[in-house]
## 1
Amino acid sequence: MSRANLPSMAWLNIWRNRRRTLLTLSSIAFGVMLAILFTGLGDQNWREMIDLAARLGGGHVSIQNAEYLDSPTLRNSVRGSAKLREQALRDAEVLRAVTRISGQIMLSTAGQSYGAGFIGLNPGEEDVQTLSLIDAIDEGEMLTSSRGNQIILGRQLAQNLNVRLKSKVVYTLTDPKGEIIYGVARVSGIVTTGAPTVDSGLSILPIDTLRENLGMAEGEGTQIALFLKDHREADRVAARLAGGLAKDLAILPWHRTQPELAGFIAMKVAGAQLMEMIILVLVAAGIFNTLFVSVMERLREFGIMLAIGFSPVTLFALVMLESLWLGLVGLVGAVIVTAAPYYYFSTKGIDISDQLGLTGTEVAGVALTSVMRVGIYPENALIIALAALTGTLLSAVYPAWQAGRVAPAESIRLV
């Protein structure tokens, strides 16, 4: 028989035992479906956490003083931010670049004093794409200018200070020279993020007022936050921009400025990959069993084929083609069975608010989403499909080898 007919023969062979073939195809389809959903759940939720972390502070990539990461004080600042922002925005992957001042602050009222973190920003340069806290303002409003005596507080911090909108707050800071300076502001907004660390320890101030009080130059800040189209490009963007920076500056991707979050995500991704490997092994074991039993049942048939002129290599190729057909049809089945649950979980999601509780759960200051959705990266879906197909083919190697080793004279006598 011509090799050109082998695919047709292999296709007919896999349907000789329909029940067994359908069970094998079901295991491939549902195994791939589980891998897609598990991976998509991780891709979407880690993407949301990374983007939220970027929009809470330093962006996907941060330009800062080379010593700021180890010594985050106002003395280690960045000057000439306008030129640096213009340079960063030339990169096609960079969408936005904003200058900020951040550090520690003491907030006081007539009866209470609490330490907190602060972010100084220009509200004219910020929106929800760079600062997620804008959407979290549930009382009052965002800063109206980069100058003035406004301040925004986290919900729990406002309660601790026993203040409300328009209440007066005195803040204390240490300037770059080490001198203690004071300022007075009125509460213009209160934010509720669901992350206890943020809600109890965040304040937002107008950046130009801070510069004046701290004796900082125009355009000076502690960091320039860059926001990218895709957070996975952070390392490459940092590497491209690093060559044009002065020696006293550093450019860091998000996983360097947020090591706790990066570690948490890496641990979860490793766990998901382990689960997917287990699923792949179980599916491959099922396919191996199907093909091996199929070969053992057809030993007499293979002996006759060898006797009439088929070569061992041809029989090996025939069984491998049967495996390839199983893999390809299984992937088509996977698309069919995955479509509906993927659509549901990508649009509706899974509400886990009851599990998170009233106070919510956070990782490195980033609140976990209460609705988990699915959204797999296309390349990850392709990897899963190729892994399933490769696993199917590998599981057929030994049965195919056994088919080519049949002794015609002995196998023909089998009943």
Note: The longest strand covers residues 94-108.
## 2
Amino acid sequence: MDFRTLNGIVLHVQDLGPADRPALVFSNSLGTDFRIWDDVVARLAERFRIVLYDKRGHGLSEIDKPPYSIAEHVGDLAALLDEFAIESALVCGISVGGLIAQGLYASRPELVSGLILCDTAHKIGTAELWNTRIAAIEKGGIASIAEAILERWFSRALRDNDPTALAGWRAMLTRTPQAGYLGTCAAIRDADFTDEAARIAVPTLCIVGAEDGATPPELVRQTAELIPGARCEVIAGAGHLPCIEQPAAVAALIEAFASENGLG
């Protein structure tokens, strides 16, 4: 395992593949760590230099001092790329990771050669929604709302037919440090890249699971329409985390997008 001190906190990171390959960086969703990308990475590892990390307050990374801002999460990702001397990367972010990816382009565009915005949007939810979730977790813990979250994360087929996998992903969610989860809820609540979306000038692919209950396909399509030249692809048989349910489809879209745009 690899740990780096960046922006004054310790982040759990992973750097896979030769440094001379095109860099592909993954940023995770709320309540997960970088293991959600395992089956995608396995399909792409021979083509890219892959960088993964647990964002602050998640996985094995330090919590620091929540609540967080998207700017802090963005600063961590920028510092990680600087740490590894990556001058430009294809950045794939899912959910809040997609907000972080958009923020990275807005603040350090030279670091971003292309964007893959997976199950995310220019703005996710309302202040009321996030404040309600924060209050519920403060009262009863993450476990108290876990079932509702899992319904948004996964397709009905997985929820009905694979209780073993569902139990494993529930464990990842409920073992997320509460302070880190709530700190990132505040960051999502306060983030809005509506204006910045129109200024994105790198190739951009938006991906969404057909059964995504958190950032539905229509919202992701709306985000793609804000970004010049972006396109949107819907993945059947997946909810909010198609990297888990349909990794082959996600990997194929990434490979095709990279090839079409000379990104790897």
Note: The two ends are 26 Å apart (CA to CA).
## 3
Amino acid sequence: MSKIISFASDFGLNDGSVGVVKGVISRIDDSLKVNDISHGIPPQDIKYGSLLLMRAIQYIPQGVLLAVVDPGVGTNRKAIAITTDWGVMIGPDNGLLNLACATVGGAKQAFELENENWIIPHEGNTFHARDIFAPFAAGYASGQLKLEDFGKELNLEDLNQYLIPLTDITDEEIKGEILYIDEFGNCQTNISPQELSDKNYKIGDSISLKVDNQELTANWCDNYKNEKIGAIGIVVDSWGMVSLFLSNGNAQKLLNCKDNSKVTIKV
């Protein structure tokens, strides 16, 4: 049984929510270790959280994932646990977990968190991370709670999904969009390097593209150093996707782009 719970949320670190959740875990079993993935997910941003978990799941210890980005807390959305070959993922049924599940081979089973013995009695219905998710994660990670005692098994086909948008490829262009902008202003797209290679582009080539309505030319570089000073470059990032960058600068600010901005590469 894993003694590590990996924890991600959109709580931030200012109001004590993260500490309270970790405190609940420690009260159930003070030998459990909590691995903080991030608590800086933008508030209510399920897409950002899904992508973050998809990237992280390949590198964090196998066992238990506790993930909470939950704009529907207190509504009829379910609190769930999903089993995978990696381990058990616990969080809201709003699509937050499905990309991480897919990355490690897909969901095997899902259960609703409804065992009253593992739900903290609470006034209000707005802090399920404290009252439901954390107790189930700690109970399972410590070996005190078995999966079959979580609650009823759910049909996997009924779970909510977040899907990465697909590119649209023709003879003349590759149409994609910006999925994710990191702290440095690098703009990850949903375009793969294979899609560039299929159009006979290679590292070192100059590529014509459009970001929203802004036309430009970018070099395909093999790292974040671009020989064209002050110009946007293209690089395959550490997650294997095509990203736009500015050497020692912020590509997002230069391009004035945002999450979901359209990116078109001309062939």
Note: Residues 128-141 form the longest helix (14 residues).
